[in-house]
Amino acid sequence: MSLATQSISALRQQLTAGDITSRDIVESVAQAIDSNDTEVGAYLSRDVEKALAAADAADLSLPLGGIPIAIKDNINVEGEPCTCGSKFLQGAYLSPYDATASRKLKEAGAVLFGRTNMDEFAMGSSTENSAIQLTRNPHDLNRIPGGSSGGSAAAVASGSAIAALGSDTGGSVRQPASHCGVVGLKPSYGRVSRYGLVAFASSLDQIGPLTNSVEDAALLLEAIAGGDPRDSTCLDDAVPSYRESLDKGVKGTRIGIPAEYFGEGLAPAVRERIETAAKALEAEGAELVEISLPSTKHAVSTYYVLAPAEASSNLSRFDGVRYGNRVDKGTGIVDMYGTSRSAGFGSEVKRRIILGTYVLSSGYYDAYYTRAQKVRTIVQQEFQAAFQKVDAILSPVSPGPARKLGDAKGDPLSDYLADIYTISANLAGICGISVPAGTVPSDEGTNLPVGLQLLGPHMAEETILRVAKTWESVRGE
Amino acid sequence: MSDTNDFKVDYVANLARLDITPEEAKRYQGQLDGILSYIEELTSIDVDGIEPTAHPAPVLDRLREDDAPAFSIKQEAFLRNAPDQASNQLRVPKVVDPS
Fold first, then answer.
1. From CA A398, how far away is CA A160, in angstroms rounded?
2. Chain A: residue whose CA lies nearest to B65
3. B8: which chain A residues are within 8 Å (Cβ-Cβ)?
4. Which run of H or E residues covers position A304?
5. Which residue has the higher pLDDT, B55 or A31?
6. Domains and CATH numbers, chain A
7. Lower Cβ count inside 10 Å, N or C end of chain A?
8. Is the Cα torsion angle A187, A191, A194, A197 positive or negative in sign?
9. What is the DSSP letter of A284?
């Protein structure tokens, strides 16, 4: 079995026993990328020599000692490119510092190796909005890997990464994890520092791990979580040993089944997989409780006011002055802003900046932005009420399996609507995980992965990881 | 809320400092009209007496000691990414129009 497809805990055992070296793992991953990634296209860049040097210097006594981790291309790693999938930054930017999550991985002994593709500035759910390259789903090369962390998910799924970091603003870790058949965790807002994550929508963004197993996700979360004076929204709460409680089972755990997540639009084959998982957890001793989250139907509208509004403000920093590609026709600075931004940004980014600018403009601010912020409060209150009755909530991640490449061309709204089950967790700031729940057949005879979503209260990662691990252990392969 | 007919993509793109071509303007106008009319459903929700949520972390206005933070990026490292520079400063096209 190739080292590149093994779990972190299995590799760590072999490393500490002296059976293998970190260099062996990095070489195995590099070979896997060489053989798989020409057709998958998960990676944007990688520096094998730098990773091998880091591998040779790795302290194997640390929790992630010697383990290579791939990083989504919107998280700064000192000295590396950070394109955000955009022409604006391609070839024009090397990070002058480490994101806190990158620094913490290094401090835990990890070897940061390889930068993964993404929708430009994380805007999208197919990775088709990358201005740099196409990423294909390893389970069916004619389909999307999901997004925006599609490169991270496809890298782990194709055996060309042990694990990866992604970022989740409206489902961008969980949905590609679901489509690619890997584990993807969105931590609670404030659990992981956003310092050095290129901001898309600051009140929704969180960095999270994509891994082959729930245990690996727990291990990575332990490494990257915790307070940070450089992010004022990051919480100082102690980081528990998430791995310790993974095997405690679900006896007596109350799991909510929200009616609104199983309604019209959910593919019957996906529903069947999710219901099978729910029954399996019930058989393990969990109590299934029917609940209602009535404002789910407003989540997409709310999100597509708030996220573009925040994005239009955050992306104003890309003006051709301090970094990135400048396009200057010699007619003054204001014209230079416009020409640089127009040349640097792709269509989806321009659409969202325009939408965000409009909803924040004088005369519309209250009607759109303030109103959406109020609906956000309602969404949050409904989750708080639900978590009085249940410990976790179970649902699908996405209404269907991965769609075909190119199928949403010209109609951005169709992809937005498919975010319905993931967006609310970001609005409410709660944690969520996608864990593989089997596959459904496509018309072309391929088997497409389906993810089970578990949502937990704010800072209750321990609960959703434990429920996810229980399902993973009874799931079978 | 609004009459989406008054959404003019050219005007808003200019506010956002985006130069868009007539083809882009036409395409975005149609797509964004569709999105705006979908978002319109927010008007049906009763939000009376509800406080807006800016971000979901249960912290607000965290303060630190009033000292110089030690984690600034060095000037040299910062300027390495600059599109144009002179004398250790960022250089930009002319700001004041002489006419």
1. 25
2. A229
3. none
4. helix A299-314
5. A31
6. 3-246 (3.90.1300.10)
7. C
8. negative
9. T
Residues of A in contact with B58 (CB under 8 A): 190, 235, 458
CA distances from A237 to A226, A287, A383, B73, B75 (A): 7, 29, 21, 27, 34
CA A65/CA A260 separation, integer angstroms: 43
CATH of domain B1-45: 1.10.20.60
Dist. CA B11–CA B44, nearest whole Å: 28
Q: Which residues contact B60 (CB under 8 A, 6 or more apart)?
A: none
Query: Kind of pairing, strands A68-72 and A111-116?
Result: parallel
**B79 in A contact zone (CB under 8 Å):** no
Model pLDDT for residues A59-89, shown as the tens digit of each residue: 999 999 999 999 999 999 999 999 999 999 9
- Predicted structure pTM score: 0.97
Enumerate the domain spans of chain B. Answer: 1-45
Q: How far is CA A200 from the centre of its chain?
A: 13
**pLDDT tens digits for A323-355?**
999 999 999 999 999 999 999 999 999 999 999
- Which tokens in the block code for residue A173? 């870790």
Q: What is the C-alpha separation between A307 and A316, in angstroms, rounded?
A: 14
Closest chain A CA to residue B96: A332
Residue of chain A with shortest Cα separation from B24? A347
Is B97–A332 a contact, with Cβ atoms under 8 angstroms apart?
A: yes
Contacts of A230 in chain B (CB under 8 A): 71
Closest to A92 in 3D by CA, of A132, A145, A138, A40: A132
CB < 8 Å to A235, chain B = 57-59
Taking the C-alpha atoms of residue A302 and residue A373, their distance in angstroms, rounded to an integer, is 8
> What is the pLDDT at residue B1?
45
Q: Does B86 contact A at CB distance below 8 Å? A: no
First-last CA distance in chain B = 42
Side-chain half-sphere CA neighbours of A300 within 13 A:
18
ipTM of the complex: 0.92
- HSE toward the beta carbon, residue A109, CA cutoff 13 A: 18
Our CA-based measurement puts residue B59 at a distance from the nearest CA of chain A, in whole angstroms, of 7
